[in-house]
Every structure is written in C-alpha cells, then in structure tokens.
Amino acid sequence: MNDFNAAPRHSLSPNAINYWRREELISNLIAFVVLAVLFYLDWRFDWYNWIGWILIGLAIIFLIGLVWSVLSPPLTFKSWRYDLDEEFLYLQFGIWNRTEQLVPMTKIQAVSLTQGPLMRKYKLASLSVETMGSSHAIPALPKETAAELRERIAHFAKIKEVEQ
Amino acid sequence: MIAAQRHHPVQILFKIGRLIRNSVFIFLVLFVFQGDNSSLYVVYGRYAFSLFFLWFLVSSVLTWLTTTYALDDQRFYLRRGIFSKTDQSIPFSKVQNINRHTSFVHRLLGLTSIRFETGIAGEDASVKFEVVTQNEAARLETAVQEQKESLVSEVCTNIDRAGAAPETERVIRKPQEERVIHFQPTRQDLLKASMTSFSFLLLVPLLASLYYNVSEFFGLEERLDGIGSTLVSSPWFIALAVGLMILASFVFGIIHSFIKYGKYKISSDTQRVYIQKGVLSEAAFSIAKERVQAIEITQTFTKRILGLAEVKLISAGSLSMGPEDMSISSLYPFLPKKRAYALVTELLPGYRIQEDMNRLPRRALWIRLLVPSWLWLIATAVLIYFRPEFLGFESTWWIASSLLLAIVFTSRVLDFLHTRYCLNDELIQLKNGGFTSTLFVTKREKIVEVEITQNRIQRKFGLSSLQTVTRARPIHTSYLKDVPDTMASTFRHWYRGRMKEVELDNAN
C-alpha cells in the first residue's frame, strides 16, 4: 500500500522530452510554412493593410509558442507523476496549475492504449482511462510499462462496487 | 416469461390530442383566416397539412400496434418499431427513481403516466408508460420496488452469515410498512411561498402574451384605442384600474401557489422517499434511499431574508416529468431552514448535517479580490468603445462600469462569507455562492472521483482548490476554492478511506 500523502512515485518515460520536442518541431515547421506562404501572398498581391497587421500578430504568437515549445517539455516531464494500487489511480501534473486526481479503480469503465507513428519511434504509448464523468490520460509512458499498467488497471477495475 | 402486452389504447387519443393542440394555430391560419385565399402557397399548404395529419393518425395506430412490453421479476422487456424492430431489456436494478404524473385529463379518465428513470446514458434512459390505468401503474411500481427490497434483504442475510446482529434483518424484512408523513405545507406556508416565488408577477406577462396573440388576428388595438382614450382621461379610473390590477395579481399569485404547492406531501418508509404534489394534475416521485447521490440545499437572496431554503435530492436518473412545470427536482422549495435540515436527517439516515462548518482563512479573500474579472474587463472595454448615452447622460459608461465592478466585488465578498466546508465522518459538506448560496452534501462512497488543484498564486498563499464529481444527469461537479493546504491533504486522506463503506459486488 502506498502512502498517498507523499507525491506519487512514478514519472513518465525520459524519452518523452525528446518526443515532445520532435512533435513540437514538426507542428512548428508546418505553422512556419503556412505563415511564410501567407506573408508571401500578402506581399505579392498587395492585400489590405489590416491583413498585414494580423499576420504580424500571428508571427509574434508563433515566436512565443516556439520559445515555449523548447522550454516546456522538461517542465512538463518534471511535473508529471502517477501511481496506482488496487484501490486508486493517482495522477499529478501541471506546470502552472498543479492538478491532482484521485480515481477509484472501481469507477473506471475503460482503459485504452494509443500509440502514434512518432510515439512508436520513441517506444512510447499513452494510456487513457475513462470513468463515468470524464477521461484521464497519462501521456507518454514506455510501451511495456503502458501495456503492463493497462492490464493491471483492467484487473483492478473488474472488481465492481454494488451499484447504488 | 409473461406474455407481452400493448400499451393502453387511449395512448393514441392522447397523441392525437397533443397534435391537435400543437397544430391548431396552423390549422386556423390555413383554413379559417386565409380561408378564401386561393394562392398556391395556401392551397398546397392545406394539402400538406392534411397529408401530415393523415400520416400521423396512421403512424400512431401502427406504433401502438407494434409497441409492447412485458416484465418478469427481474426486468422489463420492451419491443417497438414498425419496420425495424427494437428489443430492449432493462433490469429493475438499474432504475434510479420512479416518476408518476397524472395530468388533469388523465385524472378524468382514471388513468396516469409513469416513468422509470435509469442512470443509462442516451435516449433510452427511461422506461415510459404515457398512459396506463392506475392499477397497472401500481403493479409496475411494486414489481420494481419489490425486486429492490429482495436485493436489500439478500445483502442483509449475507451480513448475518458473517456474524452481524440478527435484529437488522427482521426490521428490513417487514412487509409493506406504513409510510411516515414528514411534511405537508400549512396555509401559512403556502402564503409565504406565493410571496417568495413572486408568482404574483406572473399575471402580467400572461395577460400581455394573451393580448398580443389575440390582437394580431382581430385588430384589437384599433377597437380598444377608441375606448382607451376616453377612459385614460379620468385619473380616478386609472387609479382604480391599477388597484384592481395589483389585487388581481396577488389573488392570481396565491391561487397559483396553492395549485402548484397545495397538496405537497413528503413521506418515507424504511426503503424509499416519496414526494407527491399537485392539485389539478398530480405528480409523484419516489426514490430508494440508497440511490440518493447527494443533497443540495439552495437559498436565493429573498429566501435567505425569510429564512427559507430549498432541498434537492440528486439522483442519477432524470428527475423531470416532462415539459410542464410538474417536475419534482426538490423537496418542498420553501422550507424553513431548520426544518429543512431536520427533514434531511429524518428522510435519509446517515445524513446528519452539521451546522457549524469551517470558514475560509482571511487570505482567501485577498486572492479572490486580486483575480481580474473578465466579465468586468470585457464589459468596460465595450462600454468605452461604444460610449452609449442612457437618457442623454454622457457619463453613462463609467457609471455603468463602476456599478458592475461593485456588483462583481460584492458577489465575491459574499461568496467568501458564504463559503463553508466540513468533513463530518463519511459526509462532506460544501457551501458556496454569492447572491444565491448552495450547500452540497454527499457521502464519500457516492463521490466518483476527486481533484485537487493549485495555481501559482495559490501556492504562494498556501491554498488549494478541491473538486468532487458525483453521479447525476448530467454529471454533477462541486467546487471548493481556496482552502488551506492542510485541508487539501485531510481531504485526500478522507477520500482514500471510502473503501471502508463501499460494498464490493462479488457477483462478477
């Protein structure tokens, strides 16, 4: 039995930082191309003045996002913790707003494991858990850990409370 | 299995009656007001309307012919569909609460309607019988209830075998015991209710809408203008008219509340809570005690002044009975506060509401005042941009803006003052709200999940926010913001202890 007054013990896969960086890089590249094309079209076809201003605004937001996407992955990694025993799933995360969630195993209705192409490259998988009201996800776990966790949660969740 | 049977045939008449009521307006336009109009739209409109009406008649008869139900001692078996058939079986154990509604027409014919609400998501959440005889309704209701009672006594015998005291079994096994009546409003209660609910204000919009509906077709305005101008010239007449109007409003309001809340009755036996109401049309609601997910006690601003409160039982099934205002979402909405608390304890053993609860620390107020109000910022920006002039006043914008700010701050201070919390054994009590305050009480076994959050500012102040989720339709979430960190960890610990009360289902 874990003592839940201490922070939950397990963190995500260390590969997660590189994975998030790579993912952000791809989406940033796409955003950059789109912005560049828009700027070119603006210059080429002499669009209205205000469109130029909006584009500059977008470019500033893009730059801020770019800086954040470099800085945030280690912070997100550090902020994530999870733990579970036969009674509860315990999640803790958030850089600015720290959120702790305590979900009884018996209230879990479905567990699923997802893995995108990029995640496969880093041998990662994300585990999501659905309850009556909401769904919770552990974003980047080592593949084997995720599969093992899924089995464990599924086993614990099978014990049902008398429904009232 | 018992043979499947059709619903009561009067159901077809009810359906047609409802159609006539909803389409009488279109009918009047097409066939009476535009009766001698022979433009294409109107002529085709008549054909379309007649066709629709015919189709509706045929389809409602066919629907009646093809919809059947049956029940054994465990579940409902429902079958419906004219072309593609749907078979459904719903176990009684999924029924969360039972709603019965007897409209005036139902009563004239000695019939009623009954709904069994389940916690299942989606359209098929309830088993509806829109027209049934009183006897059949009673049969259905007892079938569902008896199944539950047998379930309870089973659990009880299990405990017995484990070596618990044998008296509990005898108490629960007692068949069909008397219901205890807990509350029936007196005439004085009703008068109070008619004042607090402002139902005396209802007459004005009612008359106005009636007037507009009628005047659109008969040109009342022109006809009245002639009479009006002669009458308005006499001040005595105006005074008399206004006086009469006010009197009529009050009489109307009192009659309205007597009809709406007149025959209220809250009763219970060991298993269930029953609420009945209505003078002309009747509604009844019943829920098994252990199915009550939580309790909510609400006090609006006016109710707080008069010391009244509204108690709601939260169920995982739907509570409303339909479009009419016969929905029973609450025990009597105008209970004196003390009586309300006592009633909760009487009805639901285990719910002992503790009145002295913890307040938030002073620093929580500062944090709340510091947070920017988006509503105010946006409103002020809009006001500055448009600079509206109310009654030619140039400074309208900043007066309106500061008024709004004052309201926002008052509401925040009031919210701070009203916020209380308390962990009382297995109960949690959360109270908050600005002008309208809400006290939320539930047991920890009913809480589906909890969340504790803390933003950067809260971390500086050593405060956290709590959130609980309980079953309801839709899911009910309650918040408690800015409690001290020690409370947050107590709360976490408290919730971890829920396994002490939860019974595990060994069947699967």
Salient structural properties:
heterodimer, A: 164 residues, PH-domain like, 7 strands, 50% helix, elongated, B: 508 residues, alpha+beta, 7-stranded antiparallel beta sheet, membrane (chain A), transmembrane helix (chain A), Membrane protein YdbS with pleckstrin-like domain (chain A), transmembrane (chain A), YdbS-like_PH (chain A)
Short description:
Chain B: InterPro entries: UCP026631, YdbS-like_PH. The complex is a heterodimer of chains A (164) and B (508). Helix content of chain A is 50%, strand content 26%.
Protein model, in words:
The complex is a heterodimer of chains A (164) and B (508). Chain A is α+β, with helices and mostly antiparallel strands and 164 residues long. Chain A folds into 2 domains: 15-77; 80-157, Pleckstrin-homology domain (PH domain)/Phosphotyrosine-binding domain (PTB) (PH-domain like). Chain A contains 4 helices and 7 strands; from the N terminus they run ααββββαββαβ. Chain A starts with 14 loop residues before the first helix and ends with a strand. With 508 residues, chain B is an alpha+beta fold. Chain B has 16 helices and 22 strands. In chain B, the strands form 4 sheets. Chain B has a 7-stranded antiparallel β-sheet, with helices on both faces. Chain B has a 7-stranded antiparallel β-sheet with strand order 14-13-12-18-17-16-15. The longest helix of chain B is centred in the first third of the chain and has 28 residues, at 134-161. Chain B is globular. The model of chain B is unreliable at 153-175 and 321-327 (pLDDT under 50). Classes of the chains: A alpha+beta (164), B alpha+beta (508). Chains A and B meet through strand 3 and strand 7 of A and strand 19, helix 16 and strand 22 of B. Strand 7 of chain A pairs antiparallel with strand 22 of chain B, so a sheet runs across the interface. Chain B: Pfam families: bPH_2. Chain B: This is Membrane protein. Chain B: Residues 64-142, 269-343, 418-474 form the YdbS-like PH domain. Chain B: InterPro entries: UCP026631 (IPR014529), YdbS-like_PH (IPR005182).
